[in-house]
Amino acid sequence: MTRPTSEFRFYEELNDFLPVECRRRTISVELDRGRSVKDAIESAGVPHPEVDLILVDGESVGFDHVLRGGERVAVYPEFERLDIAPLVHLRPAPLRDPRFVLDTHLGKLARHLRLAGFDALWDKDYADEEVVRISLVEKRIILTRDIGLLKRGAVERGYFVRSTDAEIQLGEVVRSLQLERLLRPFSRCRECNVELSEAPKAAVLDRIPEQVREHYQRFKLCSACGRVYWEGTHYTRLKQMLARAVPSL
């Protein structure tokens, strides 16, 4: 017997997850008996944390809505500038103070985010289960290039990073999550993720090279690892990198 199908149309950046031949057009998705719309969406390749609105035959529904076959399903990403208050939002409310946990493949992006002032947890030994646990317990947004990780049922907040270049990734995350007003460059340790504090020169003399003592007066200190930061040539290079990644900075 032929399985029932429903017609799906995915909008805007959700098309990034579809095969090229399925993008920006109506496609048929086969249904198992009593299949939820969430399962059908993920079978097409789109992870549920990227979805904010589903319309089935014009009616707003939740992820648990059961499809029987013959329905027309429209799937939308987050509406950033459109008031859809009467409809069923499927993404959690945005976090006032967005914090992140990144999978093991995004260590360089984690350091770039910290450089921009964001709280970004990362460890090369994080298993997927640990990433999800941290996200739920600490209300952190998962950043990943693993679509399978975002499809885990427990995941509430997540974003699939499209680019493979860390500098471009930084700009992508800032734009996609509308973080421009929250940027606080050079306020956090790139290695430890701890906020930096101003340090008097006398307190760091034994930690800085002699030529730095002669030419710089302002310093910041990481209380976790003891690293000292100052506005030298490395600072200039990093500032230029931030300006390329986030032109609005």
Brief summary of the model shown:
The chain is an alpha/beta fold and 249 residues long. It has helices at 37-43, 107-115, 128-138, 147-150, 166-176, 201-204, 210-215, 233-245, and strands at 5-10, 27-30, 35-36, 53-56, 59-60, 66-67, 72-76, 100-102, 120-121, 141-144, 158-160, 197-199, 219-221, 228-229.
Tell me what you see in this structure:
The structure is a single chain. Among the domains are: 5-76, Beta-grasp domain (Ubiquitin-like (UB roll)), CATH 3.10.20; 100-182. It has a five-stranded mixed sheet with strand order 2-1-7-4-5, covered by helices on one side. Strands 9-8-10-11 form a four-stranded parallel sheet, sandwiched between helices. Strand 8 (100-102), helix 2 (107-115) and strand 9 (120-121) form a beta-alpha-beta unit. It starts with a strand and ends with a helix. The chain has 249 residues and is α/β, with parallel strands linked by helices. It has helices at 37-43, 107-115, 128-138, 147-150, 166-176, 201-204, 210-215, 233-245; strands at 5-10, 27-30, 35-36, 53-56, 59-60, 66-67, 72-76, 100-102, 120-121, 141-144, 158-160, 197-199, 219-221, 228-229. The radius of gyration is 22 Å and the shape is elongated. Mean pLDDT is 91; it is low at 80-85.
